[in-house]
Design brief:
By secondary structure, the protein is an alpha+beta fold. The chain contains 12 helices and 46 strands. The strands form 2 sheets. The protein has a 43-stranded mixed sheet that branches. It has a 3-stranded mixed sheet with strand order 28-30-31, covered by helices on one side. The longest helix has 20 residues, at 2-21.
Length: 789
């Protein structure tokens, strides 16, 4: 036994000596085929070596190969210009071969399309290194997975694991780092933990990889990163879910999605589906009980965030995630919740659906409650190209416009003032709308519009063109209504204030009108046709036609601008009662209240008015060059002309005439307390010059049933209390005064006795009545004098 052991020892020493000496003198490159067959025998697959082969046993045993292809002829699964294997001599004599260091430089590794767990070959990899590699994973029925310029540093206790390693690979213009830790295969499954990190984004996986019948991953996954928020903020985000991936599809169930810092984050739950390809497809369905956008967006010391800030944040996130060059082929997002908290208000039951391709039209559905008992819904196509635009159906309603306007304008005083002006122009009541909407940064159009404002319903269209560098914004409104129901008269001045610098084209046609609460009842009537334009500071009323409303018809047109103004109005009121009540609602004042009180007695009126002002200034007590009017009221013809007088400043010259077939009846209709009398024609002319606030110097002549009255003096239309409205000398001349007195109800005409009159007096008229002093003259041949009240 001892001799045998000694022989063995000598043999081993001899063998080792030969191994130490022989390799440097052997041309292994000339024997590359032998080396290739030896390696192929060990790994069970063809090996081709086209470059130099170097084998050394001391001081560190290694085998170095160049231009190697491992795998089937014509389709090798591993190719590389340089491979180096360090191994343990002692492992060559045992059952397990230990490779202390394996290095692959610029390898191209192709895996698949058939997958199976590795066999239990007697190989152990203490250290595996890959530099500048390329990995292609081929799969049946799915696109290849490709990792370029990847590096790896790891180990494998056997071909079935455990495995450890880390490295990186190219990901677009950046790089991604990864780490893996896997236990040994259990049947066809490999327990696996992995981490991938690029930039601020990190993905963690803890589960298992199953290779048969096809590769599949299942386990817990977490993806976290950062995104830019508004105002240069950085928002963290995180997705945690139960993940499963197979073929070209990955699913994420029971997902928890968070956006923002933990204490103020938005949190939703749901699921994801991802289909891989040259450009992946993503589907997400998320829900939440609450979306507290106030908490996410509010700044320090703020209790809530404005809707404008939320809109800016949504646009910024959408532009980054869904821009036309986004790395997505298709996507589908469904987001719903119980309530949204924004602007210190709650928005009930929000729902958002967005799907399509970033490089084309996307389908958008949005439905949400609004403050002011409102709601909005959009359903159409969204294109985020060079000229972003939405096209589709839109529906909305609001019960309290003031509440909605205050919410929208939070943090924007200028917008708040404009919306307040718009609210003042709108009637009180619910507003509803349904339309085909086109919306873009340059404006919007609402076609096939069905609009409800309080009790009125309109059809038509609205187009708004936003201002540009060389042009103002413009609003086009073309509306029609079968039955226009007006609760209160519209505030036109507030409407123009809301427009601001925006130009306007406005058309409104109503087949019938009802004006509520006029007098003791409502007023119903015929048609309304309005056409108006606003160009800068110029406003043009092309047409206002109001037919048979409250017994009145009105035709009007006009224009106002810094350079001047003009208007023409034609009134035909068969019944003044309802029209007077309507006028008093539109322009409440002492004259309109007086007209309401006397309208029933006056009965009917026809009138035509024309006014003009050429050139500034347009303000002042009388901002016109002239005002002309003529017509008929209660059977009496009248004419009126007001014009600017040469002097003094703001002076007005007036000329008025009246021709009444029955003077007494007219006076009684105007409110004079006169007894009934005989009919008597009256012809009145009045001329005056002065100022509204200081009064007028006036003269008047009245011919009444053969009596001639002449007056000259002061006329003050704005006198208050007992201040005289009219004061000055009055003369009366008549060949027979009885017909004039009879016309006023003071006596009877045709007595057969003539009463001549030649009288003079100082006349004074105030709210308390008429007073005549310094009365003197001849009446019926007798001299008279004194005073008369």
């Amino acid at each position: 036994m001892r001799t045998f052991l000694t022989f063995i020892a000598v043999a081993l020493v001899t063998a080792l000596t030969v191994a130490l000496v022989a390799p440097p003198f052997i041309d292994w490159t000339a024997r590359r085929d032998m080396v290739a067959r030896a390696i192929a025998l060990r790994i069970g697959t063809p090996v081709k070596i086209s470059g130099p082969v170097t084998l050394r046993l001391l001081p560190t045993p290694y085998l170095k190969l160049a231009d190697v292809a491992i795998g089937p002829r014509g389709a090798p699964w591993l190719q590389g210009p340089a491979m180096r294997f360090e191994f343990s001599l002692t492992s060559l004599l045992g059952a397990r071969i230990r490779l202390d260091d394996v290095t692959f430089d610029r390898p191209r590794l192709r895996v698949g399309p058939k997958f199976a767990p590795p066999a239990g070959n007697p190989l152990q990899f203490e250290h595996i290194r890959v530099t500048h590699g390329e990995l292609s994973v081929e799969r049946d029925g799915a696109t290849d997975l490709l990792a370029r310029d990847f590096s790896f540093d790891g180990s494998a206790a056997s071909t079935r694991g455990p495995f450890r390693g880390h490295g990186d690979f190219a990901l677009g213009e950046s790089r991604a780092n990864f780490q893996i830790a896997a236990e040994s295969f259990v049947g066809d499954a490999l327990p696996l933990k992995a981490q991938i990190e690029t930039g601020t984004t990190r993905a963690d996986f803890d589960g298992r990889l199953v290779l048969v019948p096809s590769p599949a991953l299942a386990g817990a996954a977490t993806i976290a990163g950062e995104t830019a928020g508004p105002d240069d903020e950085v928002w963290p985000w995180r997705i945690a879910c139960e993940a499963a991936a197979s073929g070209d599809e990955a699913r994420c169930e029971n997902a928890d999605v968070r956006l923002g810092a933990d204490a103020r984050a938005l949190e939703t739950q749901g699921r994801f589906a991802l289909r891989f390809g040259a450009r992946p497809e993503v589907e997400a369905d998320l829900t939440a009980k609450t979306f507290n956008i106030d908490s996410l967006l509010r700044k320090d010391k703020e209790t809530f965030a404005s809707p404008a800030r939320a809109a800016a944040a949504f646009v910024a996130l959408t532009e980054r995630g869904l821009r036309r060059d986004a790395p997505l082929a298709k996507f589908s997002l469904r987001l719903s919740g119980g309530v949204v908290y924004l602007g210190a208000r709650s928005l009930d039951a929000p729902r958002l659906e967005l799907s399509g391709a970033p490089d084309g039209e996307m389908q958008l559905k949005w439905d949400s409650g609004l403050p002011g008992a409102g709601r909005i819904a959009l359903d159409g196509a969204l294109d985020l190209g060079a000229a972003p635009i939405f096209r589709g159906r839109a529906e909305g309603k609001v019960g309290d416009f003031a509440s909605l306007a205050a919410w929208i304008a939070e943090g924007s005083p200028a917008l708040g003032e404009r919306l307040e002006a718009l609210g003042a122009a709108l009637p009180t009541g619910e507003i509803t709308a349904s339309t085909h909407l086109e919306l873009s940064p340059s404006g919007f159009s609402a076609r096939e519009l069905a609009l409800g404002v309080a009790a009125s319903r309109f059809d038509g269209g609205v187009v708004y063109r936003a201002p540009e560098d060389d042009s103002r914004g413009r609003l086009y409104l073309d509306l029609a209504s079968d039955a226009l129901d007006i609760e209160v008269a519209p505030n036109v001045e507030a409407g123009l204030a809301w427009l601001g610098d925006t130009d306007l084209d406005f058309r409104l046609k109503a087949n019938s009108l009802r004006v509520a609460r006029v007098g003791l009842a409502s007023v119903q009537g015929g048609s309304l046709d309005i056409r108006a334009r606003k160009d800068g500071a110029k406003f043009v009323l092309d047409k206002l036609s109001l037919a048979d409303l409250g017994g009145a018809s009105i035709q009007a047109e006009g224009e106002t601008s810094p350079a001047g103004r003009w208007t023409r109005i034609k009134l035909d009121a068969g019944r003044l009662g309802d029209f007077a009540a309507l006028l008093a609602r539109a322009a409440p004042s002492a004259p309109t209240r007086w007209l309401v009180a006397r309208a029933a007695a006056l009965g009917a009126a026809k009138a035509t008015f024309e006014a003009r002002r050429d050139g500034p200034p347009l303000d002042g007590p009388f901002g016109l060059d002239f005002l002309k009017g003529d017509g008929e009221i209660a059977g009496a013809r009248f004419a009126l002309t007001l014009s600017r007088a040469p002097a003094p400043v703001d002076a007005i010259a007036a000329h008025a005439t009246l021709d009444a077939p029955d003077a007494g009846a007219l006076l009684r209709k105007l409110g004079a307390r006169l007894p009934a009398g005989a009919a008597g024609r009256a012809e009145l002319s009045l001329d005056a010059s002065g100022q509204w606030d200081r009064g007028f110097d006036a003269q008047a002549k009245l011919a009444l049933a053969g009596a001639d009255f002449s007056w000259r003096g002061a006329l003050k239309p704005q006198a208050e209390g007992d201040a005289p409205l009219l004061a000055g000398p009055l003369t009366l001349k008549s060949g027979d005064l009885f017909p004039a007195l009879a016309a006023l109800g003071f006596g009877a005409a045709g007595t057969g006795v003539a009463a001549t009159a030649d009288l003079a007096a100082e006349a004074l008229l105030s709210e308390s009545g008429a007073h005549f002093t310094k009365l003197a003259g001849v009446l019926a041949g007798a001299h008279v004098g004194g005073a008369l009240d």
